[in-house]
Amino acid sequence: MPNALGRDLAKLVAAVDAAASECGHGAYGQHFHIMPPAGWLNDPNGLCQADGVFHAYFQYAPFDVGGGVKAWGHATSRDLMTWDYVGAPLLPDEPFDCHGVYSGSALVEDGRIRVLYTGNVKLSDADGTYDYVNTGRRADTVYVESVDGLAGREFSQKCVVLASDDYPEDLTCHVRDPKVWRDADGRYHMVLGARRRVDGPHVDSRFCAMHGEGAGRDVGEILVYGSADMLSWELESRVSTPKRFGFMWECPGYLELETDGGIPAKFLSFSPQGLEGGRWDRGNVYAAGYMPVTGDITGGKDAYELGEFRLWDAGFDFYAPQEFTSEDGRHILIGWMGMPDEPTYGNAPTVACGWQHCMTVPRELTAGAGGVVLQQPAREIECHYASVRVGEGSLEVAGDTCFDVVVDGVDGAFTAIVDGELKLAFVPAEGELPARFEMRFTDEGRASAGCGRTVRWEPVDEVRNVRIVGDVSSVEVFVNDGALVFSTRIYPEAYGVTVDTPGACVTYHILNI
């Protein structure tokens, strides 16, 4: 239940939210993507469905459009496309979360929503000795549960279930983002992102200036805990790769997808920080992806093997995704359509209106071949089709801010221009570059539709089909049944889509949301 600080914070947040509702989101407010009422949004948290209602909590800094102390905002929906913001139920009002109610997850059980999150604390550093990597920070795992049934708007007294002192001693202070699930035997499991300390000589890395001298040596890993009641936890396993793969693995998740053979395909999802060299230098500063799992990650280091790391999304704006299972058994992923620590591009048009960032469209996940997860917009989007236009080989439509374009039967060439400045194309191999699918802004200036975004591409041997989903200030592209996905924010002066792909069928749906 709220204390005095919590009550005062609640009043302040409510005042900001009320003022924001009067002003609106401006010309680039999204129609079917979750946005903050004001200020800053990042990681999706506590995704779940309860009694037919979808709940999306999220990292919310209402007082500062550039970030700041985080609370949990809360939005609900019955169709995954129309979302209502209903408040900020978790606020930084305890000594163990006073610098932020950081990311976490939820389970719906016994008529309540049960939540685990990371409480962030940066200790006062009067003499300047803390580096906040190895010293000076606490990241306790905190438990709460709803006291208003499945409404999920009011929560119980907070309880620390794992203190920072409980984590393995060789870890830095960076342990966070619990994701919880319950197995078929009724036992709870939780994964936590972690950064393991590695001592040694200085290693030159572009990440050291921001993340400390150890960013060139430290190792990312995931802690796996088990529990009978979600309150008392014991360490079951520590998961990492044989070869160092970044210095921090955050926002972890574990999922099992059904296959045609009936044997679940297992995947470990996480957002590794510190990837550099080779293909990582042409992508985002931080990646978000998944690895196929063979064996059992709860059984110790000899009980599992990890496969190839694949990106969830190869576009400009995607990070920290979270997956949950809907009441009808679908696996649904939502990501943050943003990117931390990114100085080369931004969101100036929404910042000018007092808000920044949104979530992706919810995506249904299915198991593809060869350890690939296929992503498609949640099927509920089809309930909002207002009208349709069909073209053979090409199609040009102008003026719509919300659309869903499906291109089937691509055989060779594919090009699409979105809003006059975003080019999507299958590009043949040239020189040292492989055949690839490319997302490119034609104007790379900070005042352009891309606000400084340039180009992203991934190698692909062929393009069979493409789906393009547009909202007012975002574009999400699904290639080859969603085996490859690109997302970006976009701030155009005019709207329109042109597709040119000889022999293919282009179906353009206007969305009424």
Topology:
Layout: H1 4-23, E1 39-50, E2 53-61, E3 71-77, E4 84-90, E5 101-109, E6 112-122, E7 137-145, E8 159-162, E9 171-182, E10 188-196, H2 208-211, E11 219-227, E12 234-239, E13 248-257, E14 265-273, E15 289-295, E16 304-306, E17 310-311, E18 319-325, E19 331-337, H3 348-351, E20 355-356, E21 358-359, E22 363-367, E23 373-377, E24 385-398, E25 403-408, E26 415-418, E27 422-427, E28 436-441, E29 455-459, E30 466-471, E31 474-479, E32 484-489, E33 496-511
Parallel strand pairs: 1-20
Antiparallel strand pairs: 1-2, 2-3, 3-4, 5-6, 6-7, 7-8, 9-10, 10-11, 11-12, 13-14, 14-15, 15-16, 15-17, 18-19, 19-21, 19-22, 22-23, 24-33, 25-30, 25-33, 26-27, 26-33, 27-28, 28-29, 30-31, 31-32
Protein name: beta-fructofuranosidase
Pfam families: Glyco_hydro_32C, Glyco_hydro_32N
Family: Belongs to the glycosyl hydrolase 32 family.
